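Technical note accompanying the year-one report. For the benefit of new consortium partners, we illustrate the data format agreed upon in the data management plan: each record pairs a sequence with a structure-token string. No post-processing was applied to the example shown here.
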Amino acid sequence: MHRSTQLGLLAVGGLSPAVYAYSQIGDARIRALVATSAAVALVGFFVTLRLIPAFTGKTSSRGIAGKDLNKKGTPAGDIPIPEAAGLAPGAVFLLCIICFQLLHYYDIGSLLDFVRSGFQGTIRREEALPDSWLVDYNAALATIGFMLFLGFADDVLDIRWRVKLLLPLFAALPLLAAYSGGTGVAVPKPLQALLGLPSYMELGLAYQGYIVALTIFCTNSINIFAGVNGLEAGQTFIVACAILLHNLLSVAGFAGDSGE
């Protein structure tokens, strides 16, 4: 089977549950907002495809490259492989996240009408966003930017593992300092019936400890698999599909109570 066919089947299999969850969203405004966000993400994907070759050429010319250790002793093992290429998709990802934030300032229906009419007319603004939402969102952006910087520094400076295990802790500090939301979790309805759990569980300080632990785990789990060719890309795709499905199911009303 051709590789492009394999990747196509993988994409269909991973995204099909998310498409179903999207179809269950009843609010037309939210459906339009999700679809617009998906369009922004698709544009970011194609920008990344064009940006990576140019970026890897630049890093190679600067000597930021390594060798494939799994092909050591073969001709392919002597071919330099550009490093620090993650800075390109990371920068595009940050731009897309900022665009998602901007979408919340305007009425999505009038924004789409503005685009369809050839950028004529006016765009209605939404009500002012709460300050707590903006602080949390910008803190998340700061954490992502910090981790992006640490990844680039690791490729350039070859940071030791015991140091890399602790650095994500500092990246999580903006989230902990700015977090003002709930400290509980909504239990999915299937688990409520299966395990006899309540619809909402309050975790308290354990929730903030979970935020730190999750930050450290996610970054290092991806980084460890990066040493085995190709596995980190597949792992990232699976995690992304799972998060997308979870969020869409939550928006569609399949999650438990929020506790509010």
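Partners are asked to follow this layout when depositing records. Strands lie at 65-66, 81-82, 184-186, 200-202.
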